[in-house]
Amino acid sequence: MHVRKAVISAAGRGARLYPSADTVQKAMLPVVDRDGLAKPVIQIIAEEALESGIEEICIVTAPGDAQGYERQFSALRENLLRTYEGAAWAESGARRIDDLIGRIRFAEQREPLGYGHAVGCAEEFVGGEPFLLLLGDHLYISHLSGRRCAQQLIELATRRECAVAAVQSTREHLIGRYGTLSGRRLPDSANAYRIEAIVEKPSVSRAEIELQTPGLRVGHYLCFFGMHVLTPAIFGLIRESVPSQPGEIHLTPALQELARRETYLALEIEGTRYDIRGKFGLLQAQIAFAMSGSDRDHLLTTVVDTLAESAARGQGPAR
To answer: Which helix (H) or strand (E) holds 163?
Structure first.
């Protein structure tokens, strides 16, 4: 199996990031990356894929957004070259954007009919190949030097020649936020499982009955991490899925059927995900990226100084 294509779902409007996402796509919101450069979220996600061996990327967008991405990427490139003329880091950044522009394609989700429907919009781009699926509002930091989270996933999929879901061991009081699964650990791997059952955002009581995975700590379950390597069979399964409610096609029922028909593995990723949709999600992601990057010492100094100033003014944390 050779995984050379990626799909990034970015058609959601980002209602929980209002009012910022009301004027700019949430995937174009800026985050200072580990190299110290401020980049749109979508660029950081795309670089996660490209640095994991992906060659082509399809971004699934809402109507009209593709042109917005193209304009903004071109503007970023031109601004780097014009504003920082002659600076080596700016020229390097412009080349990265050039490379990204050359590898990106777009697929339009004409109506907001759910995540499964959004994935299905990329079928023509995928063209019968296995592909990496990423969310347009999740950022990732690997705990392994030199191996991206997506790379860990692709390596297992390539070795086993099957679909693989990235998962993370999650405490039971949080599982209502995620797709949750049960599985059996592979005999030759400490962190890979064969998926047996998947439930979208289960209650704790249901998980206790249906989703126990031998070998995990008590009160922990395997939850989706926000990335998959999928086989093209997923598109037929999406078409066969019964909408959970009128006008909404989820991906989870298709994944459940994929696990029934094919080998579908789960891999505990050595890394952390950051969902930017939450109230402080973007802030948490920014802090994590800064703490993992070249400006870590400067950030620590700034945080300590800010806390000291706040304490001096009597503006410590609310109690």
So the answer is: strand 163-171
The count of C-alpha atoms lying within 13 angstroms of the C-alpha of 17, restricted to the half-sphere facing its C-beta, is: 21
Distances, alpha carbon 313 to alpha carbons 57, 160, 176, 318, in Å: 49, 58, 40, 13
CA distance 80 to 76: 6
The whole-angstrom separation of Cα 242 and Cα 239 is 8
> Low-confidence residues of the chain, pLDDT below 50?
319
Which pTM value belongs to this model?
0.90
Tell me the C-alpha distance between 141 and 29, whole Å.
Answer: 18
Q: Give the position of tokens 């692709």.
A: 154
Amino acid identity, position 134: L
**What six digits make up the tokens of 68?**
């917005």
Q: Report the chain's C-alpha Rg in angstroms.
A: 20
Contact 90, 84 (CB under 8 A): yes
CATH of 5-309, one of 3.30.70.940, 3.90.550.10, 3.30.200.20, 2.20.25.10: 3.90.550.10
